[in-house]
Amino acid sequence: MIRFCLLLALLLPVTGYAHYIPEDAQLEVSASVVATWRSSSLVDEYEFWQIPGTMMGGHAWPQEKGVSVDEAMVSLGSRINERVFGVIEIGSHGGGDDHSDEVELQHAYLGYVCCDATGPWVLEAGKMSAVFSPSLSSHAADRWISDTPLVNDVFFGRDFHDEGVRFWWHETAGLSAGVELWRGKAFPATDTGDTNWDIFASYRWQGERLSLSGGGWFYRASASSRADHRYGGTHTHTPVAPPGVTATPFPDTRFTGDTDIAGLHGALRYNPQPHWQWGVEAELMQMDMDGILHDSTGREASVDSDQFGGWVQPYVQWRRHIVGLRGEWLTTDNHLVGAAAPVLATDSGLANPEDHDPERYTAFWHWQWRDNLALRTEVTEDRTLPESDLRWSVGVVWSGRLWPATSGSSAGHQH
User: Fold this and answer.
1) Residue 243 to residues 236, 240, 246, 329, Cα–Cα distance (Å)
2) Rounded CA separation 415/203 (Å)
3) Model-level pTM?
4) Strand 254-273 and strand 373-383: pairing?
5) How far does Cα 104 stand from its chain's mean position?
6) Is 350:387 a contact under the CB 8 Å cutoff?
7) φ, ψ for residue 107 (rounded to 5)?
8) Nearest-angstrom CA–CA distance, 152 and 106
9) DSSP secondary structure of 257-314
10) How far does CA 289 lie from the centroid of its chain?
11) How far apart are CA 38 and CA 220, in angstroms?
């Protein structure tokens, strides 16, 4: 915890929130499609992606060889009147074979804006993404790198869409602060009837050539019999391999207890000349998980897990070209007590006999070829598993407004 606080103190800058409030009464329709070719798969077809020392879930699917559609989104928003607005978003996320074409309603919420003299204050309710972490609320089209940050995969199952209420002071003189209350349908929570909540704050400052921003947040979730729905739970995954190939059934181990996650995110940008920019972005998270591991045979063990991770991303931009590097890391410290602790630790993924600390390094080139069309190339040294993987990626990102039509670019880096 001391190391976490010291590192947080070094990261006062932060990026702005990727949050959308419609501008006027006219219906606004936007869409995005992200496709990527990758040179190799992170795990074999009949294996599970389970990072040692972690208990994963949500939509954290492993990257696969070949061409995949990482994301396809359609968003609609409009001002119902001067104070009330509505947003609907439908999309699909790339993933494993069982869910690669799954389309879901990701956003459907109403908002109310008031109190311009002291705010504005914004109240929103419905199905939404959390705004406490810019990287967590961003889409694949907003990122310069195709891979989601490792800490988002492990701590939140890659993305966050839940039913809830948000009340916040919205970007007033560069300051945002608020609270969110959630039903508990997003990993790492379950709908237990208890309130899941978070608090957040951020500040942005813009100078003539230098801009910086900074913020932090705290999230609390409760879970009852939480499963890894990628392979277990209601989406039980029983692979059937061809003759001569081994396929191991997934051990469905559940977690019941509380999860606390704290974080800080930051960014700094400097423009030495009109067509040049250099900067750095970073995010840190620490998770504390306290509860019970159990399975269908009645075995139980108490678990106390402390995990810490983050990423840092320096870059240089010249006109429409961006070249950069992202480094990521994760450490785990898990303590299980009980007669069944060794078995449940292995089945759940919390066991880490080799004391492996996952890391990942990605060098990237992002080219905004046209206003709404970008190309990107990446080389990734993936050490999330004990055996490292080196892969190349080439991707295309289309993002733009469909209605009303605009001549300028609507795509942008929002996280």
Assistant:
1) 22, 9, 8, 38
2) 14
3) 0.90
4) unpaired
5) 17
6) no
7) -130, 135
8) 17
9) EEEEEEEEEEEEEEEEETTEEEEEEEEEEEEEEEEEEE-TT--EEEEEEEEEEEEEEE
10) 19
11) 36
One-letter amino acid at 155 equals F
Tokens coding 109? 């919420």
Q: Which residues face 236 on adjacent strands? A: none
Q: Give the ranges where 76-167 is alpha helix by DSSP (H).
A: 134-137, 150-156
Tokens linked to 379: 């080389």
Structural tokens at position 415? 């996280």
For residue 251, what is the DSSP state? Answer: P
Token couple for 411? 């795509």
Q: Which two tokens stand for residue 11?
A: 């990261």
The strand pair at 66-79 and 276-294 is best described as unpaired
How many angstroms separate the CA atoms of 152 and 89, rounded? 21
Q: What is the DSSP letter of 154?
A: H
Q: Alpha-carbon distance 45 to 399, whole Å?
A: 31
Of 9, 65, 46, nearest in space to 242 by CA = 46
Q: Splitting the chain (415 residues) into consecutive groups of 10 residues, what average pLDDT does each group show?
A: 40 48 88 97 88 95 94 95 95 62 88 89 96 93 95 96 96 92 96 93 96 97 94 63 73 95 98 96 98 96 98 98 98 97 96 96 98 97 96 97 68 37
Place of tokens 């992002």: 366
Tracing tokens 């993924």 back to the chain, one arrives at 349
